[in-house]
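Fold it.
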Amino acid sequence: MRLVSALALCLLFAGPLEAAQPCGDPDTPCETATGSYHIALPEGPGPYPVMIFLHGHGGRGGPMVEGATARDATARGYAYIAPNGLIRMGRTRPSWNFHPDFPGQRDEAAFLQEVMQDAAARFDIDPKRSLLAGFSIGGSLTSYIACATPDAFSAYAPVSGSFWRPHPTGCAGPVRLLHTHGWRDEVVPLEGRVIRQVMGRDFAQGDVFHAMSLWRAANGCDNYRADRFETSGDFLRRSWTRCAPGSALEFVLFDGGHSVPKGWSTMALDWFETLKGPGQ
């Protein structure tokens, strides 16, 4: 993996080429119109497929580009992008404006497209081969973007985060999605939980099992029951294969709590590389 503090060369604008300031390493984010991101690139020539990973509540993108998931991704030839959430007024830690019923200071879906466009201008990446993943609240944002705009990225991989109540009534169309969750997660339980009252109503996590029913409906799957099961190794995996052409849906459980489990990045990238559909 090579961090990109000395890598960015230039941005292509409508006018003449202008030198870009080096950016992307853990200490120097790349700035966009509405936010910032960090990036780690693999060795060798591009264009590189992309893993975009959204941090959880209180996280930051800088440390992530030096983490195990970034190392795994870049070792396989992927650019690893870690965008930064915003700190809300009155708060001290970054998060994401993920809940459709509580709009925040930024349109996060538009921001992520801004990140991809900026990274494509600065670095040799291939936006048509892009996996959007996220942990906890980042996984929730990943899920909402997949539901509202399934074609915004090639595929989606939320970890330990899903929809909140009230659940969406439906999603826009077929999607390629791998949801991973800890069997013993008490922070974001599989059934969800109430966090607090906001404006006189429950601010409550959703039910992951209900989320899977929404994904099956969006993908037009023939059965409620999964078509394929895999119980070897560290993950319990169930896949729906008799669904809309080009779609993919898998639900993965692991024996753990609220975390990104060891081996997740290898499993997720293996899954991504087997997909058939746009960008694959």
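DSSP finds six helices and 18 strands in the chain.
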